[in-house]
Amino acid sequence: MVTDARHQVSDAEAPDAFSSQPGWGAHLLAGIGLALEVGAIVVLAVEAASRTLAPLDANTAGGYALGATFPIVGWIIASRRPGNAIGWIFLIIGLSQALSTFAGQYSTYALTSGVTPLPLAAECAWIGSWSWAPGYVLLLTLAVLLFPDGRLPSPRWQPVLWAAAIAIGLIVLPMAIASWHLRGLALTPSGPEPDDPALRTALALQAAGLILASAAAVASVVALIRRFRGATGIERQQLKWFTFAGAAEVLLLGVTPFINLGNQSSTLVVVYALLVAPLLPIAAGVAILRHRLYDIDLLVNRTAVYGSVSVVLVSAFVLANVVLQRLVQSVTGGQRSELLTAALGVAVGLSFGPLQRRIRPIVDRLLPGRAELTLLFTDIVGSTNAIVEMGDERWRGLLGRYRAAVRRELGRFGGREINTAGDAFFATFDRPMAGLQCAWAIRASVKALGLETRTGLHVGEVEMRGEQVSGLAVHAAARVMAAAAEGEVLVSDAVREAITAANVRVQDRGHHELKGVPGAWRLYAVERA
């Protein structure tokens, strides 16, 4: 029996290439944002060259990172998922941040550097006093509330949208109106503080807007938590990316003040800000575009492993150094030993690998992730006969080229190699169509080497412990491959139901008993139509 699946590609199965164009709006917003960011960097470089640059603090550095990251990620999301509001929100956040950064940097340099006032310097000081607000409020509220699909969790969260809009209005409009006649040096950080009744009223309304924005932000976080608790499958993985990045930002920002006793201009704090600020937009982009979506479980696992090892070793180093240095000082009359510190550092470095191997099984037991993945098994047909005919040396050379070809195709289609034994490969994919397209590509590449493959695909829930993937679905996928004929791509019924791409021909291969797997399994050979 042959059936044709001729449907449009769903959002879940959309390819990485642009599926539709969002029009000129996304290009314009991203272009303006990036142009402003480049302009701010140019002004920064001019200030540095003229030695009028004030020490760069963490907030300014983070602002530059946000202004560069949000327009790019927003443009990518809006281009590939034009129906998702998150992309447009990110574009507005990026434009707001870039405008604020450029206006503040330009006006400060133009009005305080001692050179002849530059064009529009006063107007830029005015723009910088309020342009930060839309991006700031949207980042705290709608970017969280509407993640990951750009829609409200339910209509009852509509008041949060209104609260965010009112907050932006309270922060922007009174300040823009009240500060217009003060535009100039008074609105720069180094300018004199103006004594103006209208400005005081605007600042009071701005404070009210910030309080309302904070309340809306708390409500948005509550909505995100409720969404996460009820999420399954792909949406849950998307929320994991967002939560992981958010937790990393909160953690790093929390420890930043203690790095150098609160010195916001220290190099380490500035570097931290540059690294931390882009985490959230990048993680959100990965989640929404679903590129290597399930790698978050591996990322969390590795973070826990390396974090635990680092904490243990650093604590041991500090404790040992303090205790042993005091012993040395008691013998040498108060002199510290740099040689002892260096020896302890070498010992810590040598201990990293053994300690990691001991901690990893513990973390794997504590953090087993479960995910629904597309599982691919493939191997060479008649490999034993080929070894006999070719001899070991020639076979090893051909096997190396075969493995390189398979890994090249896995990389092209976003597959993750889990295990390799001889000529057999086990890999996972986030989406069935990606796995199917990779199977076809592997077959073609390997055929060019004079070899034939057989491939089996199955979709099922698996348990992820670190880099290992296990469960009944894995055994089923291996047995599906074992049932495939030479050159055949055989799939389970679960894969057939998930295939939504056009121009795919599905041929029923009937029911099969899969060794070690209960029940009768209906399998299908899948080819391009």
Q: Total helix count? A: 18
Shape: globular
Alpha-carbon distance between the termini?
15 Å
Give me the oligomer status. single chain
Radius of gyration: 29 Å
Summing up helix and strand content along with how strands pair, one would put the structural category as: alpha+beta
Which range does the strand content fall in? 5-15%
Helix and strand element order = EHHHHHHHHHHHHHEHHEEHEEHEHEE
Catalogue the unreliable spans: 1-21, 260-265
How many distinct domains? 3
**What is the count of β-strands?**
9
- Helix content range: 55-70%
**Main beta-sheet strand count, sense and barrel state:** 9 strands, mixed
Mean pLDDT: 80
Write up what this structure looks like.
62% of the residues lie in helices and 13% in strands. The protein starts with a strand and ends with a strand. It has 3 domains: 24-291, no CATH class; 302-366, no CATH class; 371-528, Alpha-Beta Plaits. Strands 1, 2, 3, 4, 5, 6, 7, 8 and 9 form a 9-stranded mixed beta sheet that branches. The protein has 18 helices and 9 strands. The model is unreliable at 1-21 and 260-265 (pLDDT under 50).
Protein topology:
Blueprint: E1 2-5, H1 24-49, H2 58-80, H3 85-112, H4 121-128, H5 132-140, H6 142-145, H7 158-178, H8 197-230, H9 233-259, H10 267-276, H11 279-289, H12 295-332, H13 338-366, E2 369-380, H14 383-390, H15 392-412, E3 416-421, E4 424-429, H16 432-447, E5 453-465, E6 468-470, H17 472-482, E7 489-492, H18 493-498, E8 504-513, E9 520-528
Parallel strand pairs: 5-7
Antiparallel strand pairs: 1-8, 2-4, 2-5, 3-4, 5-6, 7-9, 8-9
